[in-house]
Amino acid sequence: MTSPRPAPSRRLDRLLEGLMVWVLRAGGWVSVLVTLGIVITLVTESWPFFVEVPVGRLIHDTMWTPLFAEPQYGISALLAGTLVTTGVALAVAIPLGTVLAIYLSEFAEPRFRDWVKPMLELLSAVPTVVYGYFALLTVTPLLQKIYPDLPQFSMLSAGMVMGIMIVPYVTSLGEDSMRSVPMLLREGAFALGDGKLGVALQVVVPGAFSGLAAAYVLAISRAVGETMIVAIAAGLQPKLTMNPIDSAATVTAFIVQVSLGDLPHGSIGYQSIFATGAVLFLMTLGFNLAGHLLRRRFHRAI
Amino acid sequence: MKLRLFDIFGLLAGLFWALSAEVGAGEVVKIDGSSTVYPITEGAAEDFQKETGTKVTVGISGTGGGFKKFNRGETDVQAASRPILQSEIQAAKDGGVKYLELPIAYDALTVVVNAKNDWLDSIKVSELKKIWEPDAQGKVTKWNQVRAEWPDKEIKLYGAGSDSGTFDYFTEAINGKGKASRGDYTASEDDNVLVQGVEGDRYALGYMGYSYYAAHQKRLKALGIEWDAKEKPAVKPSQQSVLAGTYNPLTRPLFLYVNLNSLERPQVKKFVEFYLTHVEALAQEVKYIPLPSSAYGKVWERFEKRNIGTAFAGHTDTAVPIDEILNRPLVP
Amino acid sequence: MRSETFYREQEMLGRRRRASDQRFRLVGMVLTLGTLGVLGALLLNLAVHGLSRIDWQFLASFPSRRAGEAGILSAWVGTLLLMLVTAGVAIPFGLAAGIYLEEYAPKNRWTAFIEINIANLAGVPSILYGLMALGLFVYQFRFGQSLLSGGLALACLVLPIVIVATRESLRTIPSSIREAAFALGATRWQAVWHHLLPYSTGGIATGVILAMSRAIGESAPLITIGALTFIAFLPPAPLMSQPPFVSFDWLFSPFTALPIQMFNWVSRPGEEFQSNAAAAGLILIGITLSMNTTAILLRRRAQRNIQW
Questions:
Q1: How far apart, in whole angstroms, are the C-alpha atoms of residue C213 and residue C207?
Q2: For residue range C122-142, what is the model confidence (pLDDT) as tens digits?
Q3: Is the model's pLDDT at B307 over the cut of 90?
Q4: In terms of Cα–Cα distance, which of A252, A259, A256, A254 is closest to A222?
Q5: Shortest CA gap B323–chain A (Å)
Q6: Residue A148's domain spans which residues?
Q7: Which of A33-47, C62-76, C224-238 has the highest mean pLDDT?
Q8: Cα–Cα–Cα angle for B50, C54, B11, nearest 5°?
Q9: What are phi and psi of A182, to 5 degrees?
Q10: Domain assignment present for A24
Q11: For chain A, how big is the Rg over CA atoms in Å?
Q12: Please, are residues C220 and C132 in contact by the beta-carbon 8 Å criterion?
């Protein structure tokens, strides 16, 4: 048996340990720095905009044209675009994602599930520009064959593709939370004579509720923040409309459109993208916190 | 695992070593501005880089956005689809920027509809104003509100974004006031987006630079413009009508503004010379209308003599012949 | 004694339940294959329109106004250099944060605060990272519209992914390993470096690959900071053949990237540019899908190999 290497001096060890604690802790706080960076930048760059534009106009104006000779500041036009595209996306992703989650967790063979689940995750690995391309050049013409009056840019087309992109978020988290429902609960229901579907709908889904809710909230947050698909395929017309067949601009598409024009520091246009960015941040912050709390509840419930 | 990382690193190092041979001069010529002029500038930049290896970056911030950068000395050349405005002249003075105003080609600002549009071939300026003026917002939404024989369907509008020189020129020429327009239309600084929009929408109407229409003539239809205020008949945009001076008020000159200080750098000087030498061919290639040769002669003279200033005193004059423009005194 | 009708009813109910089970199974299978089919349709579409376009000329040419001559040289070099910056920033900080949170941090309010923070950052839309980079890196720090600003923006974006992956893989290591190290007199850092990290490289590598795959596909933050779309030159090389042999000029160079080039081509109407876009998209999706698949396989192998 070889004798072990002599250990280095204890003092060096302790010094290194002290140093590493400091280094690692700095790493931990970098994430806080990033959040601070986002918040401070959004606040300082958009502050002049909110000072100049009274909140009343933000609510009452019907158009978003901050760069015109007679500017309009109705941010509700952008919010409507975000709302409708998100709505369409969720209308696709939530039913589809939930049914897939139930199927994979309760019905599918384990080996089938083993390769299907990662493949579904690949849906969220597709770069969003590629989805945008798909929406504009494949989905829109397809939809136009069914409904010829569909405009070239529409929230329907963009929303549907966004929905497909979001399905893995719902399915993955949903399936995980369903599988963590204890077998005992299912067995009780089976013993009482229920079929698989009945058990799934009446025992598993309610049991996995907070996990499912967390998945839905995550999906909402993702849809609200999506940029490229809507910028390419939904159009850049900020107007207040609830009709998915219309073309409209979302909060995110507006930021991109204006950034393409490359604004000089300090102009009203520059400030307007930070103002809309601030609104976006608040929305997604709300959703993320809700999702986080729901997920904690789901973890605790098990 | 460590060994593999090392291999990857070595591969990358080798790649960069090989690529380092591609490096040209460290100097960059910066152009920014109009997306209307972009097709010409892109061609000039591409060919110039192939010939000399000097780096050229071309941005499309729009005429307005480009001017803001130009007036702070951040760019060397500004491409504009309208003359410099009063506020921009002041900003240039504040930024210590002296410039040469060089008209380089004509554009026939074109009003387009979908190729399947079979109910109109030409439109009156007064009708365009009715559609596009600020008061039309939310009110003039259907075709038959403009002319009763037109369909009872919603007009889908596509136009330039507010940082665009095309926007400024169109609103000035049609609505009588620059930047005054309705807001409920699909706005983009990128004319390509507008082409896509009108192409796909049977009830669409839009306006854009002639080059973008000409590249997609199969799916777009250009409307003849009837300047009813001057009692002129409807004229369709084309090279002939522009040179004859009959396509009004939407014929406009396109400009390059060059920073006088930047011209001290040999790359910038060579680039502008290259541009001026080839602009006739480049403009033809992208279907813009080159100026008459006499005009180019005067532009060269201005460049060689380094005559700074603008002939427009900050206004977007519409429908002024190019010879008159070139003969006007220049005001720095 | 139950009546006959009762038993007959029960049997009918059972048959109905089994029938609906079968129907749902069918529906589920159809929907699953259908959803995967969409992915397949996307890939097929890209391949049909773009595969023929991919050749050496396409990979080695700069973008051009003539669609036939256009290529993605500046785009993929830009993506490569961008990833260098992103990885160089996100990996060290992500690892450090993950190790700190999992091994060192006390369970107090501050730690909870950091954790909520990271959870939030993971859900922040990518364009907001672009806005932050625009205000902070491009203007405040004066890095300009350069590879440095873009790389930093993407690094902040993928930081949470690296942190979470590090934490998860450290978490799977049973505490007996740590306790054994401590029993032998190791400091915490020695335990981490010599015992925990070697076991968790699989999980960490998975996380890093997923993070880089995400970064490669992102375009919104880069557009926001102003990555130009017409770049017909390459940034200066990081390595030179003369002293001092390493250059940092490239960090401050304007750039373009694969997703931005694709975005530019998608916006240009005309079939030739569409096929260019499809080709760029095919390459892009090829890169991200293969990276993700590698990560998934790595994760599987790491889970299977280690037997505690």
A1: 10
A2: 889 999 999 999 889 988 888
A3: no
A4: A252
A5: 31
A6: 72-301
A7: A33-47
A8: 80
A9: -60, 140
A10: no
A11: 25
A12: no
Which of A30, A35, A92, A130 is most worth mutating to test chain C (most C CB atoms within 10 A of its CB)?
A130
- Report the CATH superfamily, name and number, of domain B110-243: Periplasmic binding protein-like II (3.40.190.10)
Instruction: Say whether B192 and C267 touch across the interface (CB within 8 A).
Output: yes
Q: Based on the structure, what is the number of domains in chain A?
A: 1
Residues A138-172 as b or e (16 or more Cβ within 10 Å = b) = bbbeebbeeeeebbbbbbbbbbbbbbbbbbbbbbb
Query: In sequence order, which ranges of B23-107 are alpha helices (DSSP H)?
Result: 38-52, 62-70, 86-95
Beta-ladder partners of B290: B105
Preceding amide of C244 cis, omega within 30: yes
Say if residues C225 and C145 touch (Cβ distance below 8 Å). Answer: yes
C280, two tokens: 């760029």
Q: Which residue of B has its CA nearest to C241?
A: B17
Nearest of B59, A5, A298 to residue C254 by alpha carbon: B59
CA–CA distance, B268 with B257 (Å, rounded to integer) = 12
Buried/exposed code over A12-34 (b: 16+ C-beta within 10 A; e: otherwise): ebeeeeeebbeebbebbbbbbeb
For C20-42, how does the pLDDT look when each residue is reduced to its tens digit (9 = 90+)?
A: 888 999 999 999 999 999 999 99
Beta-carbon separation of B24 and C65 below 8 A? no
Q: Could you give the C-alpha distances from C155 to A43, B48, C91, in angstroms and in order?
A: 22, 36, 8
**What element of type H or E holds B208?**
strand B204-208
Answer yes or no: pTM beyond 0.95: no
Chains in contact with chain C (at least 3 beta-carbon pairs closer than 8 A): A, B
Question: Can you count the helices (H) and strands (E) in chain A?
Answer: 14, 2
DSSP 3-state of A58: helix
ipTM confidence score: 0.86
Instruction: Identify the bridge partners of residue B307 per DSSP, sorted by sequence position.
Output: none
Q: State the Rg of chain B over Cα.
A: 22
* CATH code assigned to B27-106+252-327: 3.40.190.10
Residue type, C273: F
Q: What is the DSSP letter of B77?
A: E
In whole angstroms, what is the distance from residue A169 CA to residue A90 CA?
Answer: 11
Helices and strands (H, E) in chain B, number of each type = 12, 13
Q: How far apart are CA A127 and CA A107, in angstroms?
A: 31
Closest listed residue to residue B223, CA positions, set B135, B71, B142, B114: B114
- Over residues C211-232, the pLDDT tens digits come to 999 999 999 999 888 766 566 6
Tell me the C-alpha distance between C47 and B42, whole Å: 29
**For chain C, how many residues are written?**
308
Chain A residues in contact with C115 (beta carbon < 8 A): none
pLDDT digits (tens, 9 = 90+) for B82-111: 889 888 999 999 989 999 999 999 888 999
The CATH number of whichever domain residue A140 belongs to comes to 1.10.3720.10
Write out the E strands in C230-273.
230-231
Judged by CB atoms within 8 Å, which residues 243-302 of A form the interface with C? 252, 255-256, 259-260, 262, 265, 273-274, 277, 280-281, 284-285, 287-289, 291-292
Go through C74-109 and write b for each residue having 16 or more CB atoms within 10 A of its CB, e for each that does not. Answer: bbbbbbbbbbbbbbebbbebbbbbbbbbbbbbeeee
CATH 3.40.190.10 intervals, chain B: 27-106+252-327, 110-243
Residue C31 CB coordination number (10 Å): 18
Beta-carbon pairs below 8 A across chains A and B: 90
A4 belongs to a structural domain = no
Tell me phi and psi for residue B21, to 5 degrees. Answer: -70, -25
A-C CB pairs within 8 A amount to: 274
Calpha distance B223→B237 (Å, rounded): 8
Longest dimension (CA), chain A: 88
Q: Residue C185: which region, alpha, beta or left (left: phi > 0; alpha: psi -120 to 50)?
A: left
Distance CA C229, CA C217 (A): 16
Tokens of B24: 């040209």
